[in-house]
Amino acid sequence: MLDRSIPFRVLFTRTSPLIPTKIENDIVKGLKSADLPMFTAHLNERQAFKAVFVSRLSLRELNSAEVNGVATAQKNAAEIVEELVSHLQQKEAA
Q1: Of 4, 29, 35, 62, which one has the greatest count of Cβ atoms within 10 A?
Q2: pLDDT at 33 (0 to 100)
Q3: pTM exceeds 0.90, yes or no
């Protein structure tokens, strides 16, 4: 309709940080076979991400004494941001 392609990447959210489920593996396999671009990092299921919405605070503002896994959630979010920035820089350079 617009005669242009819109760059995109699939981001998996709420995935298990330890062991991917069979369903997750099947979905990833299906998307890979369709040759869709995907983020390598996944935004995992973490209590800290849920607490962001409940407390209306950012990850940096959460109290790690009150919420489990704040540091791990911050690291996970940083991985997503780093990968996104890397893809944008590659797109800009092309």
Answers
A1: 62
A2: 97
A3: no
With 90 as the cut, is the pLDDT of residue 31 above it?
yes
Tens of pLDDT, residue by residue over 48-57, are 999 999 999 9
What does DSSP assign to residue 85? H
What are the domain boundaries of the chain?
13-93
Work out the number of other CB atoms within 10 angstroms of the CB of residue 8. 9
Q: Backbone phi, then psi, for 15, in 5-degree steps? A: -90, 160
Q: In angstroms, how far apart are the furthest CA atoms of the chain?
A: 52
